[in-house]
Amino acid sequence: MDVQTAVWMVLVTAVPAALIAWGSLYAIRRRADAWGLLDRPGARKVHTVPTPLGGGIGIWLGVIGVFALGTAAVAVARLQPELLAWLPESLRIHIPGLWSRVEELWILLGAASVLAVLGLADDIRGLPWQLRLGCQFAVAAVTVLAFGYGLTAFIPVAIVTSGLSIVWIVAMINSFNMLDNMDGLSGGVAAIIAATLAAVMFLTPDPGSGRPQLFIAAFLMIVCGALLGFLWHNRPPARIFMGDAGSYFVGFLIAVATLLATYAGYQQNRPHAVLAPLCAMAVPLYDMTTVLWIRIREGRSPFEADKSHFSHRLVALGLSKPQAVLTIYLLTGTCALAALLLGRVDSWAALLVLGIVGCMLALTVILESTGWRRDAS
Question: How many CA atoms lie within 13 A of 353 on its CB side?
């Protein structure tokens, strides 16, 4: 992809999404208390002053607003073809394909909005985990079965790929939700992952057309832009939190984008590229897995909120909260770069790339084990 096309993509996706989210969150911050969206300090929380919870609404507005404007623009451009002359040829040829997927796009956004409403209800009133998890599985199952999505894992059994896809979506939703425990953490990690996967889509041609996967890249860049607009308000000290509404919405969209994407075709010699989403998501998955393991090991419910998250454990080792967040950013960025490389190298080099990710996580475990031994003594 040429530089001009990349610049255009950023200007029509990430920039407007960031501006909408950034601007709308000023109004949401002022109204959050009246709406019952206020997170008060507690024993399981790291903030010390009541903080608004409506960040997810701003992220939702940023994503939905840009997709609404984009849908209207494509519809008008189809009726008045002369307007397409403003776009580079590399983007213009994708307009018919974009229009053919508008219905699918809005169904996906509708499903994501259902989860955002679920999260918003939990932010305001608190919902039992059984209801939240049941709704997540229901939305994921309807999405996967309605469109026939499946993980690109070369498993020729539809029921297996569908089941794995449903579990993947629910895991992504909850990994971002669990990561939302310090200022700027979940939103920043999600933005890094969305930007990296968008770059992967730019660099990975669709096996059918041989062209970059611009639809999915644009999808992810809009999510990334909305997150950046939110992070202006969520940077330490946070003036507003993402809340469950935001983490559910973002987790679902990123998960679905990974299912929509094609990382390697059956005839290509780089089947290892299908592991790119797993590398990009390595840190959130590590956090979720270790938190669940700690809770179960201690005989507590895996759904019980606590301070056993990766970020909390880094603070316990002596890092400040901003240092803990920056450390997780760097780990995520390193793993995300591995995802970017997987589709560009042969199988032997891919083993080295995956080895780097494994070593990063192993090093993290070793460093954390120092704290565990100190606590035990």
Answer: 24
Closest CA to 144 of 107, 178, 175: 107
pLDDT mean values, one per 10 residues, the chain (377 residues): 76 95 95 86 65 93 95 80 67 71 91 96 91 96 87 70 92 94 94 94 74 86 97 92 95 93 60 84 92 88 83 89 94 91 83 90 82 52
261: alpha, beta or left? (left if phi > 0; alpha if psi -120 to 50): beta
Spatial CA neighbour of 186 closest among 255, 235, 132? 235
Residue listed under structure tokens 């425990």: 181
Name the token pair of 162: 């569908």
Residue 261 structure tokens? 């994407």
CB pairs under 8 A, 24+ apart, for 352-358?
353/279, 354/272, 354/275, 354/279, 357/279, 357/282
Is the pTM value of this prediction over 0.85?
yes
Q: 38: helix, coil or strand? A: strand
- DSSP 8-state assignment for residue 153: S
Burial class of 319 by CB neighbour count within 10 A (0 to 12, 13 to 18, 19+): middle
In the chain, the N- to C-terminal Cα span, in Å, equals 56
